[in-house]
Amino acid sequence: MRDEGIENLLTRHRLPDPVYVTRPTMPELSSYHSHLEEIWRSRWLTNDGRFHSEFEDKLRQYLHVEHINLFVNGTIALLVALQALDIDGGEVLTTPFTFPATIHVLHWNRITPVFCDIDADTFNIDPTGLERRITPDTKAVLAVHVYGIPCDVEAIQSIADRHGLHVIYDAAHAFGVNVGDRSIVKYGDISALSFHATKLFTTIEGGALVSGTERERERIRFLKNFGISDEEHVIGPGINGKMNEFQAAFGLLELELVDQEIENRRRLTQLYRRHLEGIKGLKYPNDVPGVRHNYGFFPVLVEPGAFGTDRSRLSDLLRLCNVFPRKYFFPLCSRYPCYSSLPSASPGNLPTATMVADRVLCLPLYGDLEESVVKTICGIIETIHTETTKR
Ligand SMILES: *Cc1c(COP(=O)(O)O)cnc(C)c1O
To answer: For residue 96, which phi and psi values (nearest 5 degrees)?
Structure first.
């Protein structure tokens, strides 16, 4: 192996400061400060305060949706979505190629996750494999728009309709994504958003549920506030999922920045694509015609034979250069000890997901990442390819 040679070569490319996979856009501190002064004056910290209602309104307009509920985080939002649809047992068809929260919320609702394989191009649940996994216990499909790439929403809906299943979308990555001129969060019964600090649009921690009807929205409103309907009535077993005023005030300011953030990421994504084009053994998703993408992530798939080395070695070598990519999502959720003994968790059942999880690496991407840094990262990757394929 020529490993030591590469490592020496790469010291030339080492960046002075660490470059992480993402970094949040921050609003003007003075703007947040004046919101804080208002919170201090009113002493209204949470429970439907003025920032909460304004943020909910603005978000409704931005997403072009009618029925939305804000949450303290995306995981509690997903947990409540299942409760709102009365899914608290049985089986739910889902994807192993996701963040742990997607599957854990099933477990917390005493639902058995049934892992289905993904599509190699979209990384999303493959609708062609769904129908044969349906049993009399199947209650719903919980699909994820991974990296903000839309699921095959039409195919999933028609299968769900044929079998009387609910459809829930984990849209944690899909803020601002439209299919045609329709927001992606308008598909399915309920969509869940996450506004965690690592997401494109953030309220520090936070999330939301978008539902199809006002009735559902009302139900979710009770569920996220202990089931309280008024001072003397608790109408069901709810939980505390409320977003507070500090989050909502932050979100209001972030909302003014999000279109520029998406535009900056679009430009950097194109730069990555231009500079990585032609390196053998690397693949990355391209824009889907008719879709407004949000460029939340820049995933690349490394085919070790053609590239020269595998994903993990590439990741280690980038780290030597002060670049910190992430293996989103490795390992698959089906490999966690809490789920790996499920019949649907066997790698043989999930060949595409297994292959993608073994090859994927998300490169740094955020709005104020410098173009020169993107070029340096691409240069490092090219050097590694050249060095590992020459003999
Ligand atoms: C971030 C994320 C979540 C969880 O959201 P939190 O707001 O961090 O609780 C759920 N699903 C996916 C796919 C995510 O990436």
So the answer is: -85, -15
